[in-house]
Design a protein that fits this description.
- This protein is mainly alpha-helical.
- It has a single domain, classed as dinb family like domain (Four Helix Bundle (Hemerythrin (Met), subunit A)).
- The protein is globular.
């Protein structure tokens, strides 16, 4: 499923079971991020209007691709995957966009990571625990915790996206 803008931003059910509610809220926040980027040109998506912050809408999308990959596939499945944008020399490389970086590229990578995350979680119990060796501090996480964390991560960054979008073109909305 490709996530698209406001038209796919359905309010999560208020009566769903736990798994459907978590999936609903996560998809809602994923669609919110797309909505905040909708209709802007690459140059606008690369803008960092909240100095001294280096945040841009394009950087947020790239960051969320890294986060989806990390929590669902590296932590929960124990896969060793290379970073998408970050390096040892530039651990915040996901946020450091250049004039060569485009929405089309970032969106494709992010959508791929979202689909991979969904596949990683599909059919697995929310009680599934990660392997202690998959996290750099040796912590163990349940899939339920990962879902909750991802919802929090998107909600926080969607707040950033809200501020960025308002500074870019005056658009506001929940």
């Amino acid at each position: 499923m490709t996530i698209s803008a406001a038209s796919d931003r359905n309010e999560p059910s208020t009566t769903a079971n736990e798994r459907d509610m978590l999936d609903g809220w996560l998809d809602y926040h994923r669609a919110t991020l797309v909505w905040k980027c909708e209709g802007l040109q690459d140059e606008q998506l690369r803008l960092t209007p909240l100095a001294p912050s280096e945040l841009s809408l394009l950087g947020l999308v790239r960051h969320m691709a890294e986060v989806e990959r990390y929590w669902f596939r590296e932590i929960m499945l124990g896969k060793e995957l290379p970073e998408l944008y970050c390096t040892e020399e530039d651990p915040d490389g996901d946020f450091h966009v250049t004039g060569r970086d485009t929405w089309a590229q970032a969106e494709q990578v992010w959508q791929t990571e979202v689909e991979q995350a969904k596949q990683a979680a599909a059919g697995r119990s929310l009680d599934l625990l990660s392997d202690a060796g998959s996290h750099h501090r040796g912590e163990v996480f349940s899939l339920r915790w990962v879902y909750t964390h991802m919802i929090e991560e998107y909600a926080r960054h969607n707040g950033h996206a809200d501020l960025l979008r308002e500074h870019i073109d005056g658009s506001t909305g929940d």
